[in-house]
Amino acid sequence: KGFTKYNPHVEPSSFQAPGVAALRIGHSQTRSQYRVISEDQGLVTRFRLKDRFFNMIDVWQGQATPIVRGLMVDPSKNVDPYGVSDLKDFLFFNPQQPQVIDLFSININRARDHGVPSYVNYVQYCSGVEIHSWKDLNRFIPASKVRSLRKVYRHWRDIDLFPGGLMEFHLKGAKVG
What we know:
By secondary structure, this protein is mainly alpha-helical. It is about 35% helix and about 5% strand. The protein has eight helices and two strands. It has a two-stranded antiparallel ribbon. It is globular.
């Protein structure tokens, strides 16, 4: 009645990669500036994301619908490895205690904390292609971005899933690789 019996043969682990790395691609699609569009669409105001972290004043003043209207009109950014400064330099910013908190770094470290394998492991898992060198990555990631990765990672096997996925060529008709 409401409980199941323990079964030692059921695999209890969870697949961590989607939640802690892959589905966080939306962070790269975030804009710095958003529009608030009135019902008659005559009055348009704007706000910076960095100025609204933990600030619900617009919603409290009845602006939820105009905010959603602005979100629906303005397309999101394309998936890419370039996050806006609002998420890289001003996340949870408090002028009384200024500090830089970088959401992209948090995403990378979260995946590491959860034991998510590297990008090349997922290339093999998803495509069946084994990566044996930096050059092999050119099939999935533009050469200029592979060069950027080489400046950060000592070995191609070390590339984290989050940045690797953001750098991929996009599949035809898709926002991701």
